[in-house]
Write a structure and sequence with these properties.
The protein is mainly α. The chain has one domain (about 5-355). It is about 75% helix and about 0% strand. It has 15 helices and two strands. It has helices at about 5-20, 35-55, 60-65, 70-95, 100-120, 125-130, 130-160, 165-170, 175-190, 190-200, 200-210, 220-245, 260-290, 300-315, 325-355; strands at about 255, 260. It has a two-stranded antiparallel sheet. A hairpin with a 3-residue loop joins strand 1 and strand 2 (about 260). Helix 1 (about 5-20) crosses helix 14 (about 300-315), helix 4 packs antiparallel against helix 10 (about 190-200) and helix 4 crosses helix 12. The protein is globular, with a radius of gyration of 20 Å.
């Protein structure tokens, strides 16, 4: 299938919307502790959804996985497990910073590490910087980071402007220092998803060789990567259940609140989990259309799209209510620069495929 960067940007935008929206259903969960609803949603996003989607669109998924190189599968699973730690800390960042600020800061680090480090390891960063396409793409990455700086600055102003009680009206457990430290760790570890896609490239090649259309060829690989993410999150969540005595929540009983709406909670967690998976469903399709040489920029596009839509959600959910005019200007500037960065990166990819 020929490269088409603008279609790739569109797929990344849809994936970004899904990722920016996934945490919203968790806000409707009642009577469950964080670790319970996080892992129930995770089972849907890291196990059920990837397997079902792969089997529907790539019926010979398990044949592909059996034929793929063992080393590629193991490396993809290990990097997926490290990404899973990043996903775990991402959930905590949302818990302590809220949707808008948590996304902007955590994903800023994801964008930087996930975009620039892979070509650096491959020794291609200098080569890319010497071409017009590479210069445009790297310029788009720089714009993305600038937009993230604006978004982070808006969050810091919010911290100074709003009294503690006001901040907690929209983010119940708001804690800036703790949230920033977690977001930093999240940014570094979550970038492992970008590495996992590259380490698992032989799995994608195997899928294509066995007749899978390029658009769906990464879906069997996603099953392996996300299984790694499930592994680390399951271990951590069950450990928290044991430490806090919250295992009863899985059968509808809370130690603090008594009975809980079990079916409703599972439904909202399933909705959140499927939305989380859809970001990588569309990411894999977007990456397949971006062009081989500058495929690394997909990660920046994905991160920028998530921050754009999460900022919009933060505004709609009144997370910035009560802040001053300068803070609102910073929010708008960050959003505008991030949108511009996606256009610049897309144009760089276009030059790479249509010199």
């Amino acid at each position: 299938m020929p490269a088409n960067p603008f279609i790739g940007v569109l797929f990344h935008a849809i994936g970004g919307l899904a990722a920016a929206s996934f945490y919203l259903p968790y806000r409707r969960v009642r009577g469950w502790s964080w670790e319970t609803y996080w892992i129930v949603g995770g089972v849907f996003s890291w196990l059920f959804a990837p397997i079902v989607a792969a089997l529907i669109l790539v019926p010979n998924t398990f044949e592909i996985l059996r034929a793929a190189p063992t080393g590629a599968l193991v490396n993809a699973w290990l990097l997926g497990a490290l990404w899973g730690v990043g996903g775990l800390t991402f959930g905590l960042a949302m818990r302590y910073l809220g949707i808008a600020l948590g996304y902007a800061i955590a994903l800023g680090f994801c964008a930087a590490f996930g975009t620039l480090v892979p070509p650096s390891f491959g020794g291609k960063l200098g080569e890319l910087a010497a071409t017009s396409a590479g210069q445009w793409t790297l310029g788009g990455v720089a714009l993305c980071l600038m937009g993230i700086v604006f978004s982070g600055a808006a969050g810091l102003r919010k911290e100074r402007e709003l009294p503690e009680g006001k901040k907690r009206e929209t983010v119940k457990e708001f804690a800036l220092g703790q949230g920033l430290a977690i977001a930093f760790a999240c940014g570094m570890l979550s970038a492992c998803m970008s590495f996992a896609f590259r380490a698992g490239a032989p799995v994608v090649d195997t899928a294509v060789r066995l007749g899978t259309p390029t658009l769906w060829a990464a879906l069997p690989l996603l099953v392996v990567i996300l299984l790694g993410g499930l592994t680390t999150n399951l271990i951590w969540s069950l450990a928290l259940n044991a430490r806090r005595g919250t295992f009863g929540e899985y059968v509808g009983r809370s130690r603090l609140t008594g009975r809980v709406p079990l079916l409703g909670n599972v439904a909202f967690c399933a909705l959140a989990g499927v939305a989380w998976y859809l970001q990588f469903f569309f990411y894999s399709m977007g990456e397949s259309r971006m062009g081989a040489d500058l495929k690394f920029s997909s990660w920046t596009l994905h991160m920028a799209a998530i921050i754009i839509f999460s900022t919009i959600w933060g505004i709609l959910l009144h997370e910035w209510r009560g802040t001053g005019r300068r803070t609102h200007i910073l929010i708008g500037a960050g959003l505008a620069v991030l949108i511009a960065s996606t256009l610049v990166v897309g144009y760089g990819n276009y030059l790479g495929t249509h010199p």
